[in-house]
Structure formats: structure tokens, C-alpha cells
leucine--tRNA ligase
Amino acid sequence: MWMGDCNGINLLFKLSIPTAEFDFLETFTTTPESLLDITHLYIRSNHKLARSDLIQETENGIKRLSINAIHPLTDRLLPIFINDEADYGPKIRANMSMLNVQIGTPKSNSYDESFANKHKVSTVIDSSTHWHKMDTETLLSELRSRELGGYRTSGKLSDWCISRQRYWGTPIPIIHCDQCGSVPVPENELPVRLPSIENIRSSSKTGISPLANAHAWKKTQCPKCGNENAKRETDTMDTFVDSSWYFLRYLDNENTEKPFEPNTVNKLMPVDLYIGGLEHALTHLFVARFIQHFMHSKGLCTSLEPFKRFIPIGMVQGKTYKTSNGQYVTKDKVLTIDKNTMIHSLTKERVEVDWEKMSKSKYNGTDPQEIIDAYGVDFTRLLMLNFVHPRSLRNFTLEDGIAEGLQNWFKIFINLYVELIDPRTKTVMSNEEFQQIELALREQRLNTIYTVTFYIDSFFSVASAIIELQKLTRYLRKVPINIKRESNEYLRSLCDLLVMIGPVIPALSSELWTILQKQIKTNIDGYDLNKNLFAQNYPLLPNDYPAKINALYDTTVFASMPIARSLLPTLTTTDILQQLNNNDNQLQMKTFIEKNGLKFDRLRKLDDYCATLIYERDPNVTIVEQSEPLVEKKKSKTSKKKQVS
């Protein structure tokens, strides 16, 4: 995961004399097994506790605090030294007090041992206590029960600072009183409303919120003691505090008594699909999961995770032309010398070609309206969704021939329905031939439904689904005219095709649906031609169509076998693995797994029609790339002909 492995634990040390700012010190260690060996702590010189009224200087010249930390289990008093030379481990972040603290364990760390000996820190550990009879996991459990840490976490995680010095945001509901300190705003006075002020711009130089100038709003009464000179907190919350649970509020957005009614939202949660950019994966997804876990711990949400599935979408990129000094050049000022060489038309210097995020300053943007005016809205949508996975970067250009290929397919697609208006003359065909072709047509139709559904459910790969629908289109084009005029199976294929492609090209699909409504005089199984296209049900596979067990790595299905759909829901993961390992292609499957260094990761069931065994790279297996032997190619007329063909 991007946030790192859970490679250590958090630890909380109470202070022997709490200060106004700190009741305890928090730190992180990757060696929980040395928990009972801690003899002292280090803090950095920029720590908030490293202040003059708390600092003492030892006879050896090292600075330490006049207060001690208390060991979270043994209650031993631990001296706290100010030392910037200690190893503060993987969690170093500026201005984060919990990350400016480190433990000293002389028994297992040579630096700590040297420091302890030099500054006369007692390293004697009483190993006769009951703590030393416990294993590490039991000790961590005890820490958790005392609420003093013990949770396995990542060394990359840090605190979330939610305060912002700006006008737009939710005011932090805290009142500062000289007598009572920080007091929460009473629940019956929530939410705190933003005041109307003229200047809402914050100053980056002073770091003071514009709300600090709203004097009438800022001055208030302390809800605890009645002090009339109390002041409201003028910082507002990070907008992620609100957006981290917006999906819960959406489900109960007219509730005036509470954020949401648990019984209402739990019927619909979790969210089926979350689509966003990489910035969502790195920040919003994390804080949304954090808040959901908190809601779950308080019994407000029954689902631990907020989202079933997340798809980070790729950027649309345009071609850029750049000189050696980094200056971007417009396309009309670039001359092509050969396939690999381009120069500036005026300066004659070499120009580098690359793909980058579309931007006006890089002269690589494409106005969508120009494409819409030239090709239409539906075609533009198809052009954007075709030949690219949603997670991948989209290098967009009209010079790659994709647009022309799609135009040809559009003509074939439209003509399938126009033919119903003006059908061609029938040819002679036997009853047996008719039935054989119709049977093959049914198989093609059902295979398309299965494959399209699989690609959407498994990868949300619209591009792969479009390719399958294009295959069906070309197949239907070659169907004999007798089948087109008289086969219910053919007409059902036309209906299926429109329903599946409809979300991609809705306008054209709706127009073609009206042709079906006017030209088809018989009932089509599964469809109501009196209703519009988007009132139709998605085509389903019949009960006699087999389900499939697939073995998947990345986006490659490297093994597959059919199985009865009635049997699939009853099978466990072990059963499914055994079924696939016993099929005819087990050798091929085993070879693929060994060659790519894979291990089974998880099972994904898609209703009753598919079970996918998902494999991932095994980090413990070293893959040796074998070089292919060089084979001298014999030149002959035959080989040349084969290359040409």
C-alpha cells in the first residue's frame, strides 16, 4: 500500500508532571520486542517541551528535562534527554511532536548503550517481573487495554492537522476562555455559522485567519463559566473533514437533528464504486476510510469500509514539442525531418516530442467542442473511451487513425438497423441451415453478454467491452438476409447490442431503438418495445449457459474452465482452486504461475456467472529472465511472401 506496511507500533508515555500542552509523549518504534528494555527517551531540540523553564543541564553538558516519562507497563521513571543526534527512525516529519521522540534501548542499540554509559543512565532491567514472562503480543494487548498504544501501524503515517487559516470552511466549534481554557461549543448551538465579512482573503505572510477580524462574531460567552470576554476559534476545518463523510450525508441529507440516521444509511452502504483521480487515492480515500472506521467503532456504521471498489482514472495527455532549454513550441512551428527528428522552423534547433497533461502553456490542449462539431457528441464519447483502460493515461490525438476506424464501425453499426427498413431480397436456405446459423448466432450473442459483463464487473474496462460489441456488430453484418428478416434470435441480438452500447453512445442508440420499435412486429424475449431504450433490462444469461472459473493476473486471464451455474455459488475458495487445478489446462496454468512468480491472493465472485482467482507477484520468488536463443533466419522467397501477406 502507498501508506506503507505496518512495520511497527505506537507508544504513549505519560509525563510525571503534565504540562499545559502535553499529558504524554507519543512515539513510534519498529522494535516492539524491546519494549521492556527502554531506559530513557530522546526529544529533538525543536520539540515544544524543549523550553527553558523545563531544561536542566547535566554535568556532562547534555540537556535533559526536569520531568520524566513513565514507562507504559512497568511505571519506571524514564529521563528525557534533548538530543538531535539520535536516530529518530522512519517517522521523521517537521513540526510533528510525536515524531520528534525516540526511545533509548541500550540492551539492543549500541548508540543508546554508549549514550547511557556516558551520561550515567541506569541500564539495569529487573527481569524477574511478571512482564518478562509475557510474549510481545500479550504486552501489546496490555498497552491497548491501557490506551497507551500497542497498535501496529506504518512508519509513514503522521497526525492530520485539520485547522486552516481561511474563511471558507467549517468553523472549529471551540471557545477559548481565560478561566476555563478551551471549551467545546454546546451541541444545541451547532453548527457555528460563518459571519458575513467583506475581506475573506487570508494573509499568507501573517498566517492569521480572516475570521480574526470579525470582532463581533469572535467575541462570545463561555458556555462553562459565563465569561463574556471569551473568544471563538477563528481557524476553520480542512475541507477533507467534511468531504470524508459526504456519502453518508447524501443518503439522509434532510435530517435536521443529526448528521445522518444510521438505520437509513446502513441499508445502502458501502458505496459500490468510487471513481477519482490519483489525488483522491493519496488523500481523500485515506481520510474517508479513517472517518468510516471511526464511525464503525462508535456503532454508527455497520460497514467497516466505505467503498467496495476504487478506480483511479488516468489523465488525458496531449503531444508537446519542447526545445533543449525547456521552451514549449506550437505545432505549426515544428518541421519534421524524418521519423525520429523534428526541428524548430525558425531557429532550426532540435525539438523533443513528448506526451504531457494538457495545458494552455504547453500548447497541447484539444478543445472538445471542435471534435464535437466535427464528429458529434456520441462519437466523441466513444473516441475518449476506446482503446484505453480507465486507469491508464490517454494520449489523445486525431492523427493515430483511431477516429477513421471508429467511423467505419459506426457505418456498419447503423446499417444493421437501417436494413430493417429496406430489407434485401431473400436467398434460398434450407430449414437445417437456418437452425444451424441461428444456433451459432445465439452462442455469439451469449458469449458477448458474458464477456462484456465480465470486463465491466472485473476491471470497469469500457474499452474492452466496446471491442467485444464491435466484434458482435461485424458478426451480425455477415448474417444471411434470411436470418435477418425471420430470426427472433437476430432481432434479440440487435436489442442486446443497443442496451449494452447505450451508456457509451446514448443519443445514437436511442435513435436506432426507435427503428426497432417501428419495424419489429413480434415479441422479443426480455424486451418491451413499447418502452424507451433506457427503460429496458440489461440482457441476462440463460440458466443453461455455463459459468466460468478464471485465473487472473493483472488483466490477463491465463486459465479458464466452464462450470454449472447452479454449482458455483456453493463452492468455497478451496473448492474452486481444486476445480481449476484438476482441469485439462492445469499444466499450462502451472507453467504460467511459475514463470511469472505468482501466488494466489484472493477470490472474486461475480454473481453466479463467474469466479475469478486473482494472482499477484510473490515477493519471495526471484524471477530469472531467460534470454531467447538467437536463431538465424533464412532468407527465401517464401518467407518474403509470408511477410508481405
User: Anything to note?
Assistant: The radius of gyration is 34 Å.
